[in-house]
Design brief:
The complex is a heterodimer of chains A (121) and B (110). Helix content of chain A is 0%, strand content 45%. Chain A has 121 residues and is mainly β. Chain A is globular. Chain B has no helices and 9 strands. In chain B, strand 5 (64-69) and strand 6 (72-77) form a beta hairpin. Chain B is globular and about 40 Å long. Classes of the chains: A mainly beta (121), B mainly beta (110). The interface between A and B is medium-sized, with 23 and 26 residues.
């Protein structure tokens, strides 16, 4: 059974760096083709794809946020970490991590419950 | 990379069908067969309903179907049920190793 869970601060001040951790179980990020991605959703708004890391350490970023994002993995801990620098009020959102299975490109079949991050004005 | 365009809302009566469009460009929807659809109920994480344009994950009812023509992908929900009332999002591979989501559609079961 695959599960993912996001953790990190619920409140981040403007200009600070956000660090979110996705801890997962039921799969290994050493398995060929597997990926873990991050997606966010501002309150009442649409989903936005942020970043993705694959089993072979291939990393992909949203072009509009690439300069602010860093995604890494720790396979020994079954964790993926997303860092976002220079946080702003517009970054207030629920942040999800999700599993991309082998052989299915661009589709996330398991999601975490999400974690709400607020950047106050 | 701009978000894919979806109608803000769609509706239908129980038992009817509703079709949601997802319009992109030849650089994303039209260029690749990597279109997925997600269902999201309020306060919940998204659920994968369709991947690679028309494939259904195990456990998704066959009332849900996907297709694509040119730069527009579509999700059809047949035999609408009350539990189908939710927000639906499409997503597509956008080339250059990135993905893009749609603007979202709220489906209401009348």
């Amino acid at each position: 059974q695959i599960t993912l869970k996001e953790s990190g601060p619920t409140l981040v001040k403007p200009t600070q760096t956000l660090t979110l951790t996705c801890t997962f179980s039921g799969f290994s990020l050493t398995t060929s083709g597997v990926g873990v991605g991050w997606i966010r959703q501002p309150p009442g708004k649409a989903l936005e794809w942020l970043a993705l890391i694959y089993w072979d350490n291939d990393k992909r970023y949203s072009p509009s946020l690439k300069s602010r994002l860093t995604i890494t993995k720790d396979t020994s801990k079954n964790q993926v970490v997303l860092k976002m620098t220079n946080m702003d009020t517009v970054d207030t959102a629920t942040y999800y991590c999700a599993h991309e299975p082998t052989m299915i490109q661009g589709a996330f079949d398991y999601w975490g419950q999400g974690t709400l991050v607020t950047v106050p004005s | 990379q701009s978000a894919l365009t979806q109608p803000p809302s769609a509706s239908g009566s129980p038992g009817q069908s509703v079709t949601i469009s997802c319009t992109g460009t030849s650089s994303d929807v039209g260029g690749y067969n990597y279109v997925s659809w997600y269902q999201q109920h309020p306060g919940k994480a998204p659920k994968l309903m369709i991947y690679e344009v028309s494939k259904r994950p195990s456990g998704v009812p066959d009332r849900f179907s996907g297709s694509k023509s040119g730069n527009t992908a579509s999700l059809t929900v047949s035999g609408l049920q009350a539990e189908d009332e939710a927000d639906y999002y499409c997503t597509s591979y956008g080339g250059s190793n990135i993905y893009v989501f749609g603007t979202g559609t709220k489906v209401t079961v009348l």
